[in-house]
Specification:
Structural class: mainly alpha
Order of helices and strands: HHHHHHHHH
Largest sheet: none
Radius of gyration: 20 Å
Low-confidence stretches: none
Helix content: over 70%
Shape: elongated
Number of domains: 1
Length: 202
Amino acid sequence: MLNSYKQFGDNIKIAKELFGVYDHLTSTLIVPCDFSDILRSQIVYAVSAFDKFIHDIVKIGMIDIFCNRRPPTPKYNMYSFSLERYAQLSTATVPPKEYWFSLDIFQKHKQLSFQDPNKVADALSHIWNEDHKWQQISAKLGTNEEDVKTRLRMIIERRNTIVHEADIDPFSGMRYLLTRQDVADIIDFINNLAKAIYALIQ
């Protein structure tokens, strides 16, 4: 799972590095131009990094269970696959069985979004047998469960507004305000959230 966490770090770094572009443009160019779309893209990248992180650690954790490297969970034991996949798993030598299992997980999960707190908890149930996941995560973050879940939902809602509605208020027709500090806080939250989850499930 370490590689997945490192990959998350690389992805969140890309989101952070865009501050350099934003700062350069806003401090050196004196033109009637709005550079806030750079900030909006940072939110999209940060949420994407978190989503991929959950996808990756769940897949790797499930493969570890499949290979008897970690204990199974009730959710894992309910996982199902087609008879075709069963035949591939039963007879596989090269590539090995875990390759086909990994492919099956990827194909089933690739259209799912692991962003909303409930969906994140459900995904983690494949590899983490903990009934009070968000209590554990929030404790790791030094805050309370509802604050963490509400904060994540607000970030996801803003990301969806950017991606699906051009971040425009439907009543005024104006774009919602977004500051550099808003984005810095969002990236820090997502970074700390992923760090807490990794520490709890590795």
